[in-house]
Amino acid sequence: MTAAVAGPDIDAISVNTIRTLCIDAVQAANSGHPGTPMAMAPVVYQLWQNVLRFDPADPVWPNRDRFVLSAGHASTLLYSILHLTGVQAVDSAYETVGKPSVELADLKKFRQLDSKCPGHPEYRWTSGIECTTGPLGTGFATSVGIAIASNWLAANYNRPGHDLFGFNVYALGGDGCMMEGVASEAASLAAHLKLSNLCWIYDNNKITIEGSTDIAFTEDVATRFIGYGWNVTRVGDANDLRMLGRAFETFAKSTDRPTLIIVDSHIAYGAPTKQGTASAHGEPLGVDEVAATKAFYGFPPDEQFYVPDGVYDNFANGIGTRGRQLREEWETKFQKYRAEFPDLADQLERMQRRELPDDWDAGLTDFPADPKGLASRASSGKVLNALAQHYPWLIGGAADLAPSTKTLLTFDGAGALQAETPGGRNMHFGVREFAAATIANGLAVSKIRPYWSGFMIFSDFARGAIRLSAIMEIPTIHIFTHDSIGVGEDGPTHQPVEQLLSLRAIPGLLVIRPADANEVVEAWRLIAALKHEPAALILSRQDLPTLDRTVYASAANLAKGAYVLASADNPEVILMATGSEVGLVVGAYEQLTAEGIAARVVSMPCLELFEQQSQEYRDSVLPPSVRARVAVEQASTLGWHRYVGLDGAVIGMETFGASAPLKELLTKFGFTPDRVIETAKQVMSR
Hints:
Layout: H1 10-29, H2 35-50, E1 66-69, H3 75-84, E2 88-90, E3 96-100, H4 104-108, H5 138-157, E4 169-174, H6 175-179, H7 181-192, E5 198-204, E6 207-208, E7 211-212, H8 221-228, E8 231-235, H9 241-253, E9 259-264, H10 287-297, H11 311-340, H12 342-352, E10 370-375, H13 376-388, E11 394-398, H14 402-405, E12 426-428, H15 433-445, E13 449-455, H16 463-472, E14 477-481, H17 499-504, E15 510-512, H18 517-528, E16 535-538, E17 543-546, E18 563-567, E19 573-577, H19 580-594, E20 599-603, H20 607-612, H21 615-621, E21 629-636, H22 641-644, E22 649-653, H23 662-668, H24 673-685
C-alpha cells in the first residue's frame, strides 16, 4: 500500500486514525482484513468528511446520500467512520436512542458474539449501514436499486419548488466485486437507465486472496465500463485527497450516466517503508507489525484504539455540521410540502414506516368457483394489478419474462421505468435474475415495496440475493412461475424439482404456493402487509380449478400456513398438498369419501407460517392420532416426512423431469387420483 498521507495536518491525522482503528480491531479479533481499510481510508475520509450529504445525528433522514461498502470484508473501515463521525443509533421505530451506533467498545469487540461490529456489515444491526454486504459484487448491485429508488422518489413526489428527493449513492468495491457477474449485470442496467446519481469507487489494488490478480483477472476495467456507457475517471494515488476531491466533483457534474472512479492503491507485505505500508489482505498484521505501522504514522506504537485530540472535533465540524444543516433544511422543506401536498406527505411517511395506505385492499375480490379455473400466475396478475392501483409505491417487473409471469401493471399511469421515465412502475430487468433480485433489495432498503419475477427454475441464479433479503429482514417480493413439471415440453432444464425445498431452507423467507385463485388473493393480502419478511410466491403455468368455497373451507385460512380444506368427522387418512396438487388430492378425497373412507384434505400453502402457529392449532390440522398420511407435491420429497411421519408416504419427484406434454408427465411420475387413492389405502393398511 502506498505511503501514509504526508504532513501533520488534521486531515492526515484523521485518515491515519481510521487506519489505526481498523488494524487494532482486526488485531484484537485476531481475524479480519486490514489491507483494504488501510488503503481506502483516505477515500472514505474525503467522501464522508467533504462530500456525503449525511447527518450522523439522524442516519435515516430520507434524502441522505447512501454509502454502500460492497467490499464487505473491509467492514472495519465502515465501523471506524461510523464511530468517528458520531453516527447515532436508531431503534426499530426509526428514532434515535441517544447513544452512538458504534462505540470504541464495539470496535474492540469486532467479530465477537453480539458485537455491533460483525465480520461483514449487517443491515438493521448497526445504524448507518445501508445494506448487508459480504458476498462480493452484491453491494455494487444493491446500490443500483438504491439509485433507482432516488430517481423514482424524485419523479413521483418532487413538485415545483419542492425538491425533496435526489440523493446520490456511493459504493466502494474491489477486484473481487469486479469479477463477480452480478456487478456486471447491474452495471449494464445502471448505464441503460443513465443513473447519474450513482458513483462506484473501485479499489484497484490488484490483490485477491490467492495473490496478484494477474493470475485470473487481466481485463481493462475502464474500457469495459466505458463500453457499458459509464463515465470513468481515475485517481492514481489513493492518498491524494485533492485528486479524490476532483474525482467526486467530476461525478457531481455528470448528468447522463453513472460514474466509476478507479482508485489505484497497493498492498505491500513486510515492514513499513517510505514506499509502502505493511499490510495483509486477509489476516491480522501481528503485534510487531502493528506497532511499526503506528510508529510510521506518528502514533503511539503501544496504544490501542487511540484517537488523537482534535479528530472527533474535525468530523463534528465537517460532516457533522454540514449534515445537520442539510437535514434541517430538508425538514423545513418537508413541512412546507406537507402543508401544500398532505396526501403525498402522508404516503412518504407511511413508506418510511413500511405501513400500508388506507383502503389498500379495496380492489381485492374473491374469484367465483370454476372447475377449469386459472393458472395461479394469471390470477396473481389480476390480483397484483388490483392491489397496485391502491398501493402507489408497489413497483417491480420481471427478468425479461413479464408476459409469462403476468407481472406487468396494465392500468393507466403505471408506465415503464426507463431513463426518460424514472417514475414508471414497470421495471424491465433484462435477462439478469441475480441483478433483478439484488436491485429489488436495494429498492426495499429505500422503503419502496418491490417485486421481481422469473421462472421458478431460475431462482437458483438469484439465490444469493434471496438469501440476503432474508438476512436483512426486508419485505422483498420474489415471484416465481412455471413452478413444477407442469412446464411440460420444456423438459428437465426448465422443470424445478429441488428449488422449493431449497427456498424453504432459507430462514425467515416465507415460501407461499397457493392452490387456487382465492388462495392467491389471500397470499397477496398477507404479502402486502409484511414489514420485515421477504416472500417467495410460487405460481403455476397450468390452469388450477377454483374451489367452491361454500363447500370447502375459506381461503382466508392461508394466513395460518395450512388448514383443513374438507374433512370427515373422524378421519382415517389425511391427504396434504400445496399448489396445483391440492386440486389433485381434492379429487382423491372426494372419491375416497364416495367409497365410505373417512378422509381429510389439507392445503399447506406456506409451511413456514404453519410452523409459527400454536401446537394446538397444528395438532387440530394434523391430529397426531391419525398416522395414515399422504403428502403430494411435484417437487423433491425431502422435508415432507416431518408431516407424514414414519407411517405415511410422499408422492413427489425423486428424479429430474422429462420433456413431454403435461398429461403424459403426470401419468409417468404418478400425479394422478388413482395413485393418490392407492397410496392412501396402502398407508391405512399399515
